[in-house]
Recover the amino acids of this structure.
């Protein structure tokens, strides 16, 4: 068991989180607000209930505020936000068989 890991938590080298991140070195999952807002209301309620459950369950280290700034990049170059109007738009549904961005 690793530092701060609950005995019933999935091992850090397998499970859904491990599969989702794959072989990347990513430490964070960043989702566009517009993508979350584009999902049906029941889906959003379930998602944020799980986020709140995680926040209520885990003991974050002192000084953790949960506030971050995210900048989009294309390779090593910072690029303009492609979702500047998140309050007034929704994303269309993908076509069956299309590739996702991750």
């Amino acid at each position: 068991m690793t530092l701060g890991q609950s005995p019933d938590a999935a091992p850090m080298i397998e499970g859904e989180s491990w599969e989702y991140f794959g072989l990347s070195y990513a430490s964070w999952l960043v989702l566009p607000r517009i993508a979350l807002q584009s999902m049906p209301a029941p889906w959003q309620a379930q998602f944020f209930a799980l986020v709140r459950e995680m926040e209520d369950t885990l003991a974050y280290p002192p000084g953790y505020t949960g506030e971050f700034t995210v900048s989009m990049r294309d390779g090593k170059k910072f690029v303009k936000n492609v979702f500047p109007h998140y309050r007034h738009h929704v994303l269309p549904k993908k076509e069956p068989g299309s590739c996702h961005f991750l």
Observations:
- The longest strand covers residues 73-74.
